[in-house]
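Supplementary Note 3. Input sequence used for the single-chain structure prediction.
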Amino acid sequence: MAMKNIHPVHHIEIKRHHKWIIGSVSSLLLIAVIVNSILLYTLFGQVELRYDKLSSDIKNLETDTNSKLTELTDSVISTRQDLSSLETSLGEELNLLKASVGADFSGIIDIVVPSVVTIRTDVSQGTGFIISSDGYIVTNAHVMEGAKAAGIYTYDGEQHSVSLIGYDAELDIALLKISGSYEKLELENSDNVNVGEKVIAIGNPLGLQFSVSEGIVSAVHREGANGLEAYIQTDAALNPGNSGGPLINKLGKVIGINNFKIGSSESLGFALESNYIKQAVNGISQQALNQTLI
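The predicted structure, written as discrete structure tokens, is reproduced below.
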């Protein structure tokens, strides 16, 4: 039997330039992968940096917002306090205006009475008024004369122990002190007092605490028992217990300290003028305390 020719199997050899092409392509792919990885890493890094910056900006914004909210809250509280103070001030000014243009002293009384005190000793009683916020009180010296014990009663009903700082016998002024913080009364310049202007006297006549009587200034610079033309004459009712109380004008200021009346006559009361009160108080305080009070 005839046999066919069988050709031998030859291995296909990859030519050298084909190897180069394949190697180049592989290298390019590897480089592309590396470059792509670097780009992705850089991109992720930038994203992370931007995220950190955004987080920092948000925190800073939150801090700034909280700070501004705190400032706004403080401002609102301060404004409310200012409005409250303004309302109080306006209320007092309206009361003063009401008293200055009309016959009603009720607004003035509400303001000044809390600064008036009752003085009780083992021999007498009288009135005084607060002239400094730290509790200095002025009254007549004769209210304290001969006393071995004394107490001060403020408008709120509280009793206070009292110290005698000193006195001026000629002007019949005594300076006292109680502890605590209080609203004080202001002294008017008595040179500005006019005959005919309305006034009120506050005191404790016959033990009736914080009683108020109304009148006018009948005369100024009247002569007293000490020979000084230092007294305001008024027709406001003054009775035992009124001694040492304030004589108040329509502005709520002290123009005098109620001192005496003539006998049993009515409408003839006298108050030491406020400029002499100031002179006496500062003289006492300079000698006893080495300071000027008013």
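The CA atoms of residues 152 and 160 lie 5 Å apart. The first strand starts at residue 116 and ends at 121.
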